[in-house]
Design a protein that fits this description.
The protein is an alpha+beta fold and 229 residues long. It has 5 helices and 8 strands; from the N terminus they run ββαααββαβββαβ. Helix 3 packs antiparallel against helix 4. The longest helix has 37 residues, at 48-84. It is extended and about 80 Å long. The two termini are 31 Å apart.
Length: 229
């Protein structure tokens, strides 16, 4: 016997029929409400194999959460080490990570998911590997990674900054998708970043613009994504 996608064994079916038959006996409907609810609960009980399946799903989710926390801890630890490490040259570049759903992309449009900005290419590679193997959506559909080197235009210190400012502009096509995207370098100073934004707006007319502060090593789309019809 099937109810939706749950498969019941013969014993489950027999138990359910016995309970239904007992409900027909004289006086059963006159039982206290608590007893009737108990019988209805027995009729709705979940087969043990399904309980095990749910337990395994929960364990898998916990493992995924543990891996995400380990990745975040690793990124934080590397950030702390960078602050305490002496460098002979200025920290003048970062690395942005974007994952793309190739099946939903088409000519002149890319279905991109911005994951974050990282101090090293190694950190960006580690984050990409984790998402493509563990995070919902990214591990279910054909997704590719894109790691882009970003210059810090107003770098003046040896240590890696904790936050940077980036300006973005784009147009929208007939499907309301973002196209003709333009992106500035990274700026430590908000004032310098806004000055660059004004230059870009004059040189490249776009329908929409943003000017956002990003935290180095912060992870976005941690819960993944689902496709809608």
């Amino acid at each position: 016997m099937q109810l939706g996608w749950i498969d019941f064994s013969r014993q489950d079916k027999a138990d359910a029929i016995n309970i239904i038959n007992s409900m027909k006996e004289k006086g059963v409907l006159d039982l206290p409400l608590q007893n009737r609810r108990r019988k209805m609960h027995e009729m709705r009980r979940v087969p043990e194999n399904l309980q095990v399946r749910h337990s395994r799903v929960a364990e898998a989710e916990q493992r995924g959460l543990h891996k995400m926390r380990r990745l975040q801890g690793w990124l934080s630890a590397r950030g702390g080490n960078r602050k305490n490490r002496k460098r002979k040259r200025k920290m003048n570049k970062l690395f942005s990570l974007t994952l793309t759903d190739t099946e939903l992309s088409y000519e002149n449009f890319s279905e991109d998911f911005f994951i974050g900005i990282f101090a090293t290419k190694q950190e960006a590679e580690a984050a990409a590997r984790y998402y493509l193997e563990n995070v919902k959506g990214f591990c279910d559909f054909p997704c590719t990674k894109k790691i882009k080197e970003k210059q810090i235009a107003d770098c003046s210190a040896e240590a890696c900054p904790s936050v940077v400012w980036i300006a973005n502009g784009w147009n929208e096509n007939e499907f309301y998708d973002e196209v003709d995207i333009i992106e500035s370098d990274c700026f430590i100073s908000e004032e310098n970043g806004r000055a660059e934004l004004e230059k870009l707006q004059k040189a490249f007319p776009r329908q929409e613009w943003t000017f956002v502060q990003w935290k180095i090593g912060e992870l976005f789309w941690q819960d993944g994504f689902v496709r809608t019809a």
